[in-house]
Amino acid sequence: MSVEKKLEQTFNELKKTLGWAVDKRITLSLAGYYVTLEKDFDENRYREVASHLKKRAGIFSALRSHLNPLFVATLDVSGAEPEQAVNLLMEKADALKQFGFKVNSYTYLAALMMSEQKDQWPFEMKMAQKLMDDMKAHHRFLTSTDDYPYAMFLGKMEGDTAVRAETMNRYYKELKQHKFYSGNELQWMSQVLTYSNPEYEENMVGRAVIIRDGLKSVKIKTSQAQYPIIGFMAALKLGEEQLNQIVANYESIASMKLFSWYKDSALPIAFGLSLRSSKEAYATAAISMATSLELILQAQQAIMISTIAATSAATASNSGSD
User: Fold this and answer.
1) CA–CA gap between residue 35 and residue 73 (Å, rounded)
2) Which residue, 103, 75, 84, is CA-closest to 306?
3) Helices 204-217 & 227-235 angle (0-180, nearest 10)
4) Which Pfam families does the record cross-reference, listed alphabetically (predicted)?
5) Which end of the chain, N or C, is less surrounded by CB atoms within 10 Å?
6) pLDDT tens digits, the chain, 322 residues: what are they?
7) Where are the alpha helices (H) located in the chain, listed in sequence order?
């Protein structure tokens, strides 16, 4: 079955399960998530996860918000038993709360990135908090709870958090000089650019500018909502062949009737699909969640990096056993 047909089939199955009340853009993003991960959507399993999550979440919990389908899908594709997956998420969120993190959507998204080994949690939370503090030293007002997921993801990586935060700040300032607009999206992009190296790289911003301009030249939107995706393309140091494949995939997906009014949603899916067979495959499924939608961008970007965090460990383990 072609990718296009699989996307349409998965979208229709999700729409049947989620109903019309869920924003079509979220449903499209979720369809891309399952397809990029090469996971078949199982309505019964999805509903089971949703049921357990509903039982555990309070009436006013962020887990019951319009982002609920994103949380359910992430737990669904984890492969864990539904009740076990939900219980572990709640336990992680409680640990974050006890550590001093404010509880909101971003706290749960950060929880998705924590390891399953409970003895690792104190270290992971400490490093995330330290990175947050180091980031605030440069961007006091811009750094807030919506940075929790990135801080959890990047804080666990090798390298000094103060050095990483300084590198982020340098990238942020340079990007502004190249007509990238200030704001949360640019902060996330500057964070993403440190994904492969916490140390400053002279040509990193130049690479991002080339990618942005190249996408614009073929009439692919490069608005603020797309900044983190462009950041990942630069950080992963994709070659011309890979970038051309992303454009080809985008054009194929964007031409589908399903995406007639939501072409922005096609780019992150195209990105994920283009890398699926490469050694960077651990990044792909998550990227497909990073649609260009302003309303749900923050949650999807966070889930994007949570998936990278969860699957990169498995990839590293597999490569180590080769």
Assistant:
1) 12
2) 75
3) 120
4) DUF4003
5) C
6) 899 999 999 999 999 999 988 888 888 888 988 888 788 999 999 999 999 999 999 888 988 887 788 889 889 988 899 999 999 999 999 999 999 999 988 888 888 888 889 999 999 999 999 999 999 999 888 888 888 888 888 888 889 999 999 999 999 999 999 999 998 889 889 998 998 899 999 999 999 999 999 999 999 989 887 888 898 889 888 889 989 999 999 999 999 999 999 888 888 888 877 776 554 444 444 433 433 333 344 445 545 554 555 455 444 445 555 5
7) 3-18, 24-36, 43-56, 68-77, 82-99, 105-113, 121-136, 148-155, 161-177, 184-192, 204-217, 227-235, 240-254, 266-275, 284-287, 297-320
Rounded CA-CA distance 67/101 in Å is 20
Measured CA to CA, the distance from residue 183 to residue 62 in angstroms comes to: 24
Residues 115 and 108: beta-carbon distance below 8 Å: no
In angstroms, the Cα distances linking 53 to 15, 50, 90, 102 are 19, 5, 9, 20
Backbone torsion region of residue 62, taken as left when φ is above 0, otherwise alpha when ψ lies between -120 and 50, otherwise beta: alpha
Residue 228 contacts by C-beta under 8 Å, 6 or more apart in sequence? 185, 188, 189, 192, 290, 301, 304
- Residue 72 contacts residue 301 (beta carbons within 8 Å): no
Structure-token pair, residue 206: 């130049």
Q: Is 140 helix (H, G, I), strand (E, B) or coil?
A: coil
Token digits of residue 290: 């990073």
* Separation of alpha carbons 312 and 306, rounded Å: 10
**Whole-prediction pTM:** 0.84
* Token code pair at residue 54: 């509903």
